Amino acid sequence: MCGIVGYIGTKAASGILLEGLRKLEYRGYDSAGIATILDDQIHCVRAKGKLNNLQEKLDGEDNPAPLGIGHTRWATHGKPEEYNAHPHRDTEGRIAVVQNGIIENYRELREQLKAKGCEFRSQTDTETIPHLISQKLIAIKANPPNNKTAEASLLLEAVRQAVNELQGAFAIAVISADFPDELIVARQQAPLVIGFGQGEYYCASDTPAIVAYTRAVLPLENGEIARMTRMGVEVYNFEGIRQRKTPRTLNWNPVMVEKQGFRHYMLKEIYEQPGVVRTCLETYLVPDWTPELGISPIRLGIPDEFYADINQIQIVSCGTSWHASLVGKYLLEQLAQLPTAVQYASEFRYSPPPMIPNNLLIGVTQSGETADTLAALEMDKKRRKDETGPLRSRLLGITNRAESTLGELVDRVIDTQAGIEIGVAATKTFVAQLMAFYFLSLDLSYRRKTMTIEAIEKMIDGLRQLPAQVESVLESQERYIEELAHDFVDTQDFIFLGRGINFPIALEGALKLKEISYIHAEGYPAGEMKHGPIALLDSKVPVVTIAMPGPVFEKVLSNAQEARARDARLIGITPMDEVEAAETFDTLIPVPHVDEILSPIVTVIPMQLLSYHIAARRGLDVDQPRNLAKSVTVE
Ligand code: M6R
């Protein structure tokens, strides 16, 4: 939620900041702004709405300032108006701050600061920060403390003292017209990465903003504050103790964060899915595995001791990751015979199940920064912290960003290897999460001996077919679905049905449609429809049904017929041949014959394409749907 960037070096900052913000716009697009230091003054330009509005304001400005900060906002406190846009300044306009997160104690701070004469001009929690830093600076100048941070810089010390008074989750970047050669950043539970160049340094909420300039990065840890100058970067903890840090090298390139000729990132990411599945297979399948090797065919790097004694699994996640978790539950229960509960992370934290012995808690989050998911995992870790036996904390993360906060929090990570996803609607990361669950379930099944070697081999063979099968759906169906989408431009309600392992795919189809086309949609287990939702059906409500051959195939077809009898237009996602399908469905979206248990990887593709093309036909901003943000770092 919200993206922040900063630059200190020798080049003009504003262009670099703007480009960085463009790569972070997925984090929020209610307003944007940048602040630089020009002629000894803070020069702040802000605009309501998307980044283009800010760009228009900046066009024609000749601003050579080599230091600045920028922000793109997803509104939490205060309406999405220009006066609430970041950067925010202190009363004298000498300090500018951008923030990602929420300052929970902002009300008390605001009252205290107002009492000291600070003038507030916005409704935001963030505005307390520049005022607080300004007050700290006044006190420090009057009575300089004798410590390392004050020795390094009074601005650093003022920010350090200020962040120690802030409660909540935040990442900030601060500049001051009185300290024109430094940029101060701090992190507490919200991501912030520093990029290292030659005599120039960058900071950002996420690496895509800086990967065009440098691949040497240092993610700040919680409770760390850094002073960036043209000479280098010094990192301290909030107590003021210097931390020794070494940047690491990203294996990304700037092209990965471009659209590469696709109209939208979402479509590009849908098309990347065969490659993502291939990468997962190459990464996690032991090459040339044979049963005689006596090792698991899956190489997740998780040692036996980690999960030898588990007898139950809990999964916490949100949104699309929650749907992947439901598929995971199916696999873990059916293959590894492990009872598995899936909870919304936002519910788990405040109504946690009792502490269960021999439990594995899995957090699934593509961004690794979703506040609800992190909070749920932290809560469980905390309540088990003194336990060493069966009640001990055991956390596994499934994420596309192993370097994220989740990566630091959990004991083990499965990196989903999908590459950066820019479209707000998750597509390729979902498929990669499903792959992670196939691997985890197979690894557990092998070690727990709940599947025969033959069954494991058959499943691995099936997994290896998936990239080509996904490719064939994309090649054969995209044009057709694009045409089909035309019929639904004015549709107001959709129903998605699936059963068993494809029920979560029905939920995912409905979520995709809601998110990017703003059409009301509901996903249901097909057998549940007759218990209520069937009342919604008439000729204006299309029903998309996933029907894959398997134990409940006939039942799904009967459920679909029940909908057809109520005049609903039935769209089937199925490998049935045309003649058979014509008896059941009004419209057929054929998919290859795939074992039902592997089919979610294939059946989700038409769902993604359908929602994409309906939204695109409606002329909507597919990559940045209204009110949403890619990374939801507030609870
Ligand atoms: O980064 P996460 O996977 O934790 O994100 C969870 C949800 O916010 C996310 O899946 C959201 O529902 C997406 N916009 C779905 O397309």
Annotation keywords:
635 residues; alpha/beta; Glutamine Phosphoribosylpyrophosphate, subunit 1, domain 1; Rossmann fold; 3 domains; eight-stranded antiparallel sheet; seven-stranded antiparallel sheet; 36% helix; binds 5-amino-5-deoxy-1-O-phosphono-D-mannitol
Could you walk me through the main structural features you see in this protein, from its secondary elements to its overall organization?
With about 625 residues, this protein is of the alpha/beta class. The protein folds into three domains: about 5-255, Aminohydrolase, N-terminal nucleophile (Ntn) domain (Glutamine Phosphoribosylpyrophosphate, subunit 1, domain 1, 4-Layer Sandwich); about 260-450, Glucose-6-phosphate isomerase like protein, domain 1 (Rossmann fold); about 470-635, Glucose-6-phosphate isomerase like protein, domain 1 (Rossmann fold), CATH 3.40.50.10490. About 35% of the residues lie in helices and about 20% in strands. The chain has an eight-stranded antiparallel β-sheet with strand order 3-2-4-1-10-9-11-15, with helices on one face. Strands 5-6-7-8-12-13-14 form a seven-stranded antiparallel β-sheet. It is globular, with a radius of gyration of 26 Å. The mean pLDDT is about 95.
